[in-house]
Amino acid sequence: MNPFALDEPLVLDDPYISRMSEAEFFDFCQQHRKWHIERNAQHEILIMVPTFTLSGRCNASLIGQLYA
């Protein structure tokens, strides 16, 4: 099963990751620009699948509704 086909983010939780500085996290993100990467309060790294045309269209519609 492909973990990137799921709706939920892939969570990386490792002792090294929890000790990663802001600069190291920034470098990690720069090395993996094609992914949407975040870090939560528990210092877990969340990797989400990039949005594509259909979800982008839905997001644009929601933003338009909020604007209106």
Could you outline the blueprint of secondary structure elements for this entry?
Layout: E1 10-12, H1 15-18, H2 22-31, E2 36-39, E3 45-48, H3 53-67
Antiparallel strand pairs: 1-3, 2-3
Organism: Hymenobacter polaris
Protein name: Uma2 family endonuclease
Mind explaining what this structure looks like?
By secondary structure, the chain is an alpha+beta fold. It has one domain. Helices cover 43% and strands 16% of the residues. It has a 3-stranded antiparallel β-sheet with strand order 1-3-2, with no helix packed on it. Strand 2 and strand 3 form a beta hairpin. The longest helix is centred in the C-terminal third of the chain and has 15 residues. It is elongated, with a radius of gyration of 15 Å. The chain starts with 9 loop residues before the first strand and ends with a helix. The model has no long low-confidence stretch (mean pLDDT 81).
**Largest β-sheet summary:** 3 strands, antiparallel
Ends apart, CA distance between termini: 41 Å
> What proportion of the residues form beta strands (DSSP E)?
15-25%
Across the major sheet, the strand order is 1-3-2
Write down the Rg.
Answer: 15 Å
Order of helices and strands: EHHEEH
Note the total helix count.
3
How many structural units, i.e. domains? 1
**What is the share of helical residues?**
40-55%
Task: Give the key terms.
68 residues, alpha+beta, 3 helices, 43% helix, Uma2 family endonuclease
